[in-house]
Design a protein that fits this description.
The mean pLDDT is 92. Strands 1-2-3 form a three-stranded parallel β-sheet, covered by helices on one side. It has a single domain, classed as Rossmann fold. 43% of the residues lie in helices and 11% in strands. It is built from five helices and three strands. By secondary structure, the chain is of the alpha/beta class.
Length: 97
């Protein structure tokens, strides 16, 4: 079972870290953009708050933390409560993951 208590408890702290360390966040985002030339239909496993999925054009994400998923949904992510070990999608649905 996923250990989600820290993520449930510290969702806003997680978000603030990225706001306070914008240069680090933008650097990570640039590095990821270079790896994802054309994501097609993608899935982010461990989407958290959608902070990376949203600007990278990844429309769907899974995470076991309901509080993190609430924020991801506000960012336009189709956020599903799930874990990587039990994906709720058919095999071959995504172009990338």
């Amino acid at each position: 079972m996923a250990r989600i208590a820290p993520f449930e408890r510290h969702t806003q702290r997680y978000e603030r870290w990225f706001e306070q360390h914008e240069a680090a966040y933008l650097s990570e985002l640039r590095a990821l953009r270079e790896l994802l030339s054309d994501p097609g239909l993608g899935l982010e496993i461990g989407v958290g708050t959608g902070r990376f999925a949203s600007p990278l054009g990844i429309a769907i994400g899974i995470d076991p933390s309901l509080r993190m998923l609430q924020v991801a949904r506000r960012r336009g992510i189709r956020a599903v409560c799930a874990v990587a070990e039990a994906l709720p999608f058919r095999h071959g649905v995504f172009d990338m993951r």
